[in-house]
Specification:
Elements (H helix, E strand, L loop, with lengths): L7 H10 L2 H10 L1 H13 L2 E3 L2 H11 L12 E4 L9 H13 L7 E4 L2 H7 L1 H7 L7 E7 L1 H9 L6 E6 L9 H4 L1 H4 L9 E5 L19 E5 L6 H7 L5 E5 L15 H17 L4 E8 H7 L4 E9 L4 H11 L3 E6 L11 H5 L9 E7 L9 H12 L6 E7 L4 H4 L15 H8 L2 H11 L5 E7 L7 E6 L4
Parallel strand pairs: 1-2, 2-3, 3-4, 4-5, 5-6, 6-7, 7-8, 8-9, 9-10, 10-11, 11-12, 12-13, 13-14
Antiparallel strand pairs: 14-15
Helix pairs in contact: 1-3, 2-3, 4-5, 5-7, 6-7, 11-12, 12-13, 13-14
Length: about 475
């Protein structure tokens, strides 16, 4: 009886689903897998953080007469600046990069690029020759990294850059500014993430615009002057902001709003002057970041992390963006207060287009005795005036004081009495609450309610559709 056989396509498909460890075993058992397995392994990429790993990687890719190199999809050099690879390891790696084909290498990640290129300039020159890199990431972008970006044969579609501070005022902006270095990728670059970025440069030094960039993320920057971003990225559709106004005193805003409002006003004027970012698909960030940005445009989806700031700031942002989808993580006290909390915000101008509301409430220890049932009534009342189709509410109890102290150092559970919020959430039937939303908000088609972190009740979730009631 003839032995059953599998054709090459089926065998290749097997490797695509196998783990790296399994593929390694298969390579030792079968000549076909010895040849095909590396293609799957290398497409997933290689992450190297020691001399030993570099040398093992090179021995692997140089097998089969070096033909494996053309299958490498991603390369990550994960060395810290105080722990660089040896001259010997980098020399061998450099020779391979220069002499072999890396036509499939699309993703290049170098943690400490500036230190790496300072210690090993030969690597910088070798990387310039890579023809297909489209996605570049580093936590340290300075003059040497800008040289790489400026001289590479490849054209980028996505970059994530942690920008180094340049202390020498005599250094030309074009030498260290990544957006000047990336000019050859102006027509191909689509996604940009900038960390520790100084956007406050003279208008005479603004780089030419990048018309294809639609996704922009700015992280951990000092106060961002949006004029340069509005000029450089005129067609942004997705904006994410995180810690972009660090030197501004957000905590003092209710008592001293001058600093925040002055920057917000300057940025709003920039939006109106440049006339770019006319409509956006999504804006995400902390409430202070988005508030200070002064974004004035129609936004389909607005996602805000509100651990700081006020409901007046929230109302101002919603009024400026008129979102149809609103996602909020809310921590400040008074979130369900009828007079000044979210119910009041939803009754004001700007909220009239909201069709989807996702609300995650981290119950504040200062409000452990609030009447949550009354707060939900106030919310439902505000929702009646909206064209709301979907709502999701997550009740998070992780920070309630009784929960935080419920486990002693010796591991014994403390049986302190529950607060009013805990009592309500312990007994509330989520399905009944969902039916209440359907009954009182006629436009609703879907309701999702979830409970997390309650010390007396397991996590729970219900998902309901009006047409299935």
């Amino acid at each position: 009886m003839p032995q059953p056989t599998l054709n090459a396509d089926v065998l290749s498909l097997i490797t695509s689903f196998a783990t790296g460890r399994t593929i390694s075993s298969m390579m030792q058992a079968n000549r076909f897998f010895y040849h095909e397995g590396p293609k799957t392994l290398l497409r997933k990429g290689a992450a190297l953080n020691s001399d030993e790993e570099i040398l093992k990687f090179l021995r692997f890719v140089m097998a089969e007469e070096g033909t494996r190199t053309r299958h490498l999809g991603a390369l990550s050099l994960e060395f810290e600046k105080w722990h660089m690879p040896s001259e010997n390891a980098i020399s061998i790696l450099t020779d391979v990069l220069r002499s072999c084909s890396f036509d499939s290498l699309r993703i290049l990640h170098i943690d400490a690029a500036e230190a790496m290129f300072s210690h090993h300039p030969c690597l910088l020159d070798a990387l310039k020759t890579l023809p297909s890199v489209a996605d570049f990431c580093t936590h340290s972008c300075g003059m040497r990294t800008c040289e790489l970006l400026r001289d590479m044969q490849a054209r980028m579609t996505s970059v994530k850059l942690g920008c180094d501070e340049v202390e020498d005022a005599n250094v030309p902006v074009q030498s260290y500014h990544p957006l000047h270095a990336l000019q050859d990728s102006r027509d191909t670059l689509k996604e940009v993430e900038l960390s520790f970025f100084n956007a406050s440069i003279s208008p005479t030094h603004y780089p030419p615009p990048y018309p294809a960039v639609q996704v922009l993320t700015v992280n951990w920057a000092e106060y961002v002057d949006y004029a340069s971003l509005l000029h450089t990225f005129p067609n942004i559709k997705s904006l994410t902001l995180d810690n972009t106004c660090n030197e501004l005193d957000v905590d003092d805003f209710p008592e001293n709003p001058t600093a925040l409002n002055a920057h917000r006003s300057a940025n709003r004027n920039s939006f109106l002057r440049y006339g770019t970012w006319k409509t956006m698909d999504e804006v995400d960030g902390s409430l202070p970041d988005v508030y200070v940005s002064g974004v004035v445009t129609r936004v389909r989806r607005l996602g805000l992390f509100m651990s700081e700031g006020t409901f007046e700031m929230l109302s101002a942002v919603i009024n400026d963006t008129h979102p149809s989808d609103l996602a909020l993580y809310v921590k400040p006290a008074g979130v369900l207060n009828h007079e000044f909390g979210l119910p009041a915000v939803l009754r004001r101008e700007g909220a009239e287009n909201i069709k989807t509301l996702k609300l995650s409430i981290e119950h504040n220890p200062d409000e452990k005795d609030v009447d949550l049932d009354a707060g939900l009534s106030a919310l439902i009342s505000a929702l009646r005036g909206l064209p709301l189709r979907e709502i999701e509410i997550i009740f998070c109890c992780y920070e309630l004081p009784e929960h935080m102290t419920s486990v002693q150092w010796n591991g014994e559970v403390c049986n302190s009495p529950p607060c009013a919020v805990e009592e309500f959430l312990e007994t509330v039937q989520l399905e009944a609450l969902g039916r209440r939303f359907f009954a009182e908000v006629g436009s609703l088609q879907g309701v999702t309610l979830a409970l997390r972190g309650h010390r007396r009740r397991h996590n729970d979730i219900v998902k309901m559709r009006r047409d299935l009631l």
